[in-house]
Amino acid sequence: MVRRILLGSQLRRLREARGVTREDAGYSIRASESKISRMELGRVSFKARDVADLLTLYGVTDEAEREPLLNLAKASSVAGWWHSYSDVLPSWFQTYVGLEGAASQIDTYEVQFVHGLLQTEEYAHAVVASGHKSMRLSKEEIERRVALRVERQKILFQDDATELRCVLDDAALRRPFGSAAVMDKQLQHLLDLSERPNIHLQVVPFDLGGHPAESGAFTVLRFPEPEIPDLVYLEQLTGSLYLDKPEEVAAYGGVLDRLIQDGSLSPAETRDHLHKIRQLA
């Protein structure tokens, strides 16, 4: 999806610079005006032949200029690693996994449980098994969902590691998933992760009372490419919602900033808080 968005934005820029209408662009590749619009928004896949024809129409004839865009068209049709988990991955969540992997910064507030990127394998297993009781998942299905979650976490440890700013509600730390040993290992894992330079972890304690994130959990995805707008991701029971209007993204970003600045424990206080919970368990 990210590759499609990048390619689409480049094609739109070239079309507008050439003064070509969407209708004329569509005619040149035997498609409709709406198809061009969807291509430029990155909402459909690209055929290399169509991209080549559009580049010619837009006056891009130098092979040195054409090749990167044609390569991007080919790459945009290559399935991401997560597609191998399509048997246990809801179609609406596949989009999120792709966007998450492309984000340079993830800002998130979580209420019900520890964020998926910060879960131990044992804790993730307990969360998946508990949350899908009504679905009667097999042991193999549960294991594959956990494996997917663990695979997603690699973005925090690669060379160009994603920056994660995570604010957890106290309830996420105190609601037990699995045994006492599982919870203790999860808390220690959070302590370890909080020492990493790309992970900023803070907790909203119960005694704070009300706070800015009263609407519930959310995630803001920020991308390094200026062509890709920042997105707010809201997960629901049977689907998800993306918000990309600048004012909406700014509103959620502002909530997280206020939580970090004066609505939660500092990173150092958060580590002390995690130690105390472990001692009381």
Task: Provide a descriptive summary of the structure in words.
- With 281 residues, the chain is an alpha/beta fold.
- The radius of gyration is 22 Å and the shape is elongated.
- It folds into two domains: 2-75, 434 Repressor (Amino-terminal Domain) (Orthogonal Bundle), CATH 1.10.260; 81-280, Endonuclease, Chain A (2-Layer Sandwich), CATH 3.30.870.
- The chain is built from twelve helices and six strands.
- The model has no long low-confidence stretch (mean pLDDT 91).
- The protein has a six-stranded mixed sheet, sandwiched between helices.
Shape: elongated
Number of strands: 6
**Span between N and C termini?**
44 Å
- What CATH first level of the largest domain would be assigned? Alpha Beta
Radius of gyration using CA atoms only: 22 Å
As a percent range, the share of helical residues equals: 40-55%
Strand order of the largest sheet: 3-2-1-4-5-6
Largest sheet: 6 strands, mixed
| CATH architecture assignment of the largest domain | 2-Layer Sandwich
How many separate helices?
A: 12
Query: What is the name of the CATH topology of the largest domain?
Result: Endonuclease, Chain A
Number of domains: 2
Structural class: alpha/beta
Mean of all residue-level pLDDT scores: 91
Order of helices and strands: HHHHHHEHHEHHEEEEHH
**Percent of residues in beta strands:** 5-15%
Instruction: Extract low-pLDDT stretches.
Output: none
